[in-house]
Amino acid sequence: MDTEAQPTERDRSSRPSAPEDVSQETPGPEGPEGRSRFAFAGRISRWLPGGRVSLTLLICLVFLLVLNAFVAQPFQIPSGSMENGLRIGDRVLVNKLAYRFGAEPRRGDVVVFDGTGYFGNSDYVKRVVGVGGDRVVCCDKEGRIQVNGRSVDESTFLYPGDSPSAVDFDVVVPDGTLFVLGDHRGRSSDSRDHLGSPGGGMIPVDDVIGRADWIVWPFAHLTRLSRPSAYARVPGAEGAHG
């Protein structure tokens, strides 16, 4: 059965012959249908103390919580292990989507990770020096770190006066993990110091919270953290283990 209302012939004797009153058949924006769009929000605002102001603040709070949990999160730098690039008290904005949807950390990225069970019960910020399959060696004849047989010039971000490492090592990074170092090598506890610990000083990629993309505080230190070009010529891991 067709449930749509069918048109009926008007009783012309009961009404004057005049143009149809369109407003009776097509509710305007002020009609009940237009008002019902905001009825739900109106009921919530009447229930909340403070009305629409409280509702607006609540929506903003929920938005910030979702943003913080899934998109970007600020972290405060607690130590000098990443100087001069990151100083004590700086706040960095960590991109939590950087390594989702199939992307992986790359050499030179500054990452924040959960070090529980590997470095300590805290979050840490370090620079990625080796990824899965890489052979990382310290040091060549000029005192530089080598990755897959290629010497890396770290002078653009290494703390002035620091050597690339005072500790010799020769490691192969297992798949799914990272070899990380601080930029202030003289003050950084990093993969070099945990070679004999569980995990061999390597950080599981799954424990990476995100990539530090910006210094957002203090404003005078506002900076975009870009990947240095020092690792651009490092070859892939194939054939690096010979």
What does this structure look like?
This protein is an alpha+beta fold and 242 residues long. It is built from three helices and twelve strands; from the N terminus they run αααββββββββββββ. Strands 1, 2, 3, 4, 9, 10, 11 and 12 form an eight-stranded antiparallel beta sheet that branches. Strands 7-6-5-8 form a four-stranded antiparallel beta sheet, with no helix packed on it. Helix 2 crosses helix 3 (52-70). The protein starts with 31 loop residues before the first helix and ends in an 18-residue tail after the last strand.
Question: How is the topology of this model organized?
Answer:
Blueprint: H1 32-36, H2 39-47, H3 52-70, E1 72-76, E2 91-95, E3 110-114, E4 123-130, E5 135-138, E6 145-147, E7 150-151, E8 169-172, E9 177-181, E10 203-204, E11 208-217, E12 223-224
Antiparallel strand pairs: 1-2, 2-11, 3-4, 3-11, 4-9, 5-6, 5-8, 6-7, 9-10, 11-12
Helix pairs in contact: 2-3
Overall SS class: alpha+beta
Global outline? globular
What percentage of residues falls in helices of 4 or more residues? 10-25%
> What letter string, H or E per element, gives the SSE order?
HHHEEEEEEEEEEEE
Assembly form of the protein: single chain
Instruction: State mean pLDDT (0 to 100 scale).
Output: 80
Report the C-alpha radius of gyration, rounded: 31 Å
- Low-confidence stretches are 1-38, 61-70
Largest sheet: 8 strands, antiparallel
Distance between the termini: 81 Å
Percentage of β-strand residues: 15-25%
Helix tally? Answer: 3
Total strands: the figure is: 12
